[in-house]
Every structure is written in C-alpha cells, then in structure tokens.
Amino acid sequence: MENIDGGFAPEKGGAATRSGFSFDRGWLLVIAVVLTITALIVSRPDPFKRIFFFVQDGIWVTISVTVISFLLMLITGLIVALLRLTKSAFIKAVATSYVEIIRGIPLLVQLLFWYFAFPTVIQSIGKALRFSLFENYLANPVAMAVVGLTFCYSAYMSEVYRAGIQSISKGQMEAARSLGMSYVQAMRYVILPQAVRVILPPVGNEFISLLKDSSLISVVAVADMTRRGREFMAANFIPIETWVMVALLYLIMTLVAARVVHWIEIKTRLEK
Amino acid sequence: MEDPIIHIENVVKHFDKVAALRGISLDIMRGEVVVIIGPSGSGKSTLLRCINRLEEYDEGLIVVDGIPLNSAENINTVRTEVGMVFQQFNLFPHLKVIDNITLAQRIVRKRPKAEAEKQAYDLLEKVGIPDKAQAYPWQLSGGQQQRVAIARALAMNPKIMLFDEPTSALDPEMIQEVLDVMLNLAKEGMTMVVVSHEMGFAKAAADRAILMDEGYIIEEALPEVLFTNPKHERTKLFLSKVL
Ligand SMILES: Nc1ncnc2c1ncn2[C@@H]1O[C@H](COP(=O)(O)OP(=O)(O)OP(=O)(O)O)[C@@H](O)[C@H]1O
Ligand SMILES: [Mg+2]
Asked: pTM for the complete prediction?
C-alpha cells in the first residue's frame, strides 16, 4: 500500500503504440489464469467446483465492499487533500495529523477497532446521555468494514491527490485567479481536470491494493472471499486446493484491474 | 486633476525576512502606459502581483479604479477589471484556444456561450491568429501562445492590463509579434503596466518608465530620458549592463 507505483505499475512504453490499437500483452496472463481455473474445475470438479461454488457469494462481497469503499474514498480523499492545501494552519494541521496517524497504524488494527471498539464507545455515550438509539447500537460488519477501509485508505488517497494537484504548476492557479475565478472555480475548471490525468494511474494502483487488503475484513465477521475460504477449509480440510482456488480468484481480479489501469494510462498519455 | 486608476501608497511587502517592496508609492492615470525595468529580484513582479492581489502586501494601500483592495469581495471585483499576462503564458493546456478564452467569460462574467465565443473570435482576429481557435496550446508557437494569453485576458474587458516580462520566454523572432499586439493595445488607450526590458516598446508606447531596485522606485521619467540620460547612478549602472 505504501508503494503507490507497486508491482502493478504499467511498464513504461508498453504494448500500445501511437498508431492506433495494439494488443496489450498483459491480457495473456489474465487468459492464462482463467484457463487454469477452468481446467481445474473441469478436470477435478471435486473439490475445485465445490470450492468455487462455496466461495462464490464471497466474491460478490469482496467486489462490492471494495467498490463501495473505493467510491467513497475518491471523495473523502479529495476533501482531505484540499484541506491539507488550505492556507489555514489549523485546518492543515488537523488534516495532516489524520494522515500521519492513519498511516502509522496497521489496517488490521484499525478494522478491529471499528468493529469491536467503536460500537462500545457509541453504546457508552448512549448510556451516559440516556440516548436509546446509541445505547442499543449494534455494529453491522459490512458497514464497519466499509468505514474502516474508507477511513484508512482516504489518508493514502489524499496523498495521491495532493501530489497530483501539486504537480500542476502554480502559474495555472494564478492565471485562473487573475481572470477573476474563485479558488473553487479554479480548482474545478483548471487544476483538477489537469490533475486527474496525473493521478489516474496511482489511483488505479490504490484500487488494486484495496482489493487485496479487503481480505483483512474476513477477521471482522464479513463473509468475503477469504472468510468463505476459511469456512470451507474448516469443514473439509483440504488447505492446498482451497487456498490455490482463492488465490487464483484474487489474482484474476487484480490482474484485470491492472490491465484497466494500464489502458487508462495509455489513453491519457496519448492525449497529451 | 483626474483621479488615478491605480493608486499605490507606501506599499511594503516581505517574504519571510526578504524585503521585496520597501515603500512603493505610484499613481497611474487612466490610459497611461508605464514600463517598469530593474535588475532581477528588485520587486517588479511582486509589485504587479500586489496590484491584482496575487500577492498580499504587508503595509500601505492600493486602490484600483476607486476600489480599495481589502475584502475578498473587492479582490474578485478588481481581478475581473485587471488582466494579467505572464512570462510563461500559463495557458490552460487541457483546453483548446477557444475554451481558454471563453472559460472565465462564462463562469465569472456569466456570458452565454455564443456571446463568449463571438468575443473570443473577435479577439483572436485582433491578435492575428483567427485560425487557431480549435488548436491546443501545445500546438502553437511561443509567440502565438502569448497572443492567446493576451486575448484571454482581454476577453474579460479589463480596464487595466498588467504584463510581467511578456516576451522574455520567447525566441527572438517571435518577440515582435507580441510587442505589436501590445503596441496596438496602447494606441487604443488601454491602461498598461509593463515589466519589460524591451526599450523599443518602451520608447514607442510608454508614457513613463520606472527603474526599480531592491524594492524601491529609484527613478521615473519619460522613457527616452530614462534610457538615454538617467539621473541616478544605479539607473546608469543597470542600463550599462542591459544594453
Ligand atoms: N514567493 C516568494 N517567496 C519568497 N521570496 C520571494 C517570492 N517571490 C519573490 N520573492 C523574493 O522577492 C524579491 C523580489 O522578487 P520579484 O520576483 O518581485 O523580483 P523581479 O524584479 O520580478 O525579478 P525578476 O526580474 O527576476 O523577475 C526577490 O528577492 C525574490 O527572491
Ligand atoms: Mg519578475
């Protein structure tokens, strides 16, 4: 997660050329993984087909939790980035502290806090204030997982946004302001449209990290792919087959996401 | 006597410990063209940027067209009346030339699209590149980009134009095309404050030339006088280096 340009960074001067469409060879690996899964299921339905159908609903949980958290953090990350770029020293300090604190605590610990500790905090407040809605508060595992992932990843995302905004020369903001635009107008019409092109690839890589890190929510009672894998193993005790299958399913998702990121990077590069 | 359109009174500006302006007073009349020269770091850009408040000053007062620059509201009003042209052009690279010129008209002046585009085409005609409306900035030469930047500023119908070394980032063969646009503007009676060492332009268009050094105005005079027969030692020294 720390490494924004991590293992999935699209290779420089990739497969696409300036002259029209060219096949991105990265897809070959995707096809290879799909074929492997198919081959396993067809050649040994027991246990591979059983595993697949068992973890299937977990696939959707993993995807939806990842996508929802990602959409939320796109917004919250931007807000944090803008707060860090304000002139007000106080607001800047608050936003910076948030980012520093979040980045200093393991994601797993944060998720455990949101699921186990946070509801207790709310209940105590409810008791103290005799506010029954809070007193009877029960944590919804999926909601807490989304909150935990969003809260953590917004900090990382804000750094991506901040770098993107700062990569746009100061002269752009000055030109916009000198034409009478407000700060918000200048951001919206001049700075962010340019920054978006810079940040799309690293934002895509954050998505891939998030997809992988979402496996941690399996410890806070969310029936994602990883948790379903554990349940299957507990009942059948065939660890090798189970974890190979789960790993391949994660791999296919991250590889597809990486190809999409690569494609976006090529697109935005050509527009320059 | 008529009121000055720009009134600058004892303006002081520091960057941390560096003094950029140390008490500048200057009145500029409507329709006047003032050229500012001076060594690097003397505070020329800072003075221009204080006039439209891209930079805040520490002490003193600046009044633009009767509006004192103090509240945020006033700053935005003033900015729409003061156009600025930068050394590095600062065109918006993600927008076509036409959109560069219409963007602020539409979102700040709230002009309808057709009206903003009409204005843009008229101005492109005026700066001599009517055929470049659909180009992106990177497809233009430096001289063309700077002319678009001038058109973009003029599109807001400013009463004052500020130029910060508009030709110093240009290849020599492109300087004149930009200066010609500025000369025409001066002839039409635009109030202009120009930081530039282009003596030809100063002599042809300026009513006054000012030499700044170390945050002070050292000398001001008619351009011919300042360039050929300056009173102050520092002006002589500076001119001997530039010429
Ligand atoms: N944003 C800034 N932060 C810190 N110091 C600055 C800043 N802008 C200008 N200065 C300092 O203020 C002084 C005046 O700078 P200014 O840019 O106004 O000079 P200038 O006359 O325009 O010079 P040049 O001919 O090089 O453009 C210089 O000492 C400069 O280093
Ligand atoms: Mg300067």
From this structure: 0.83
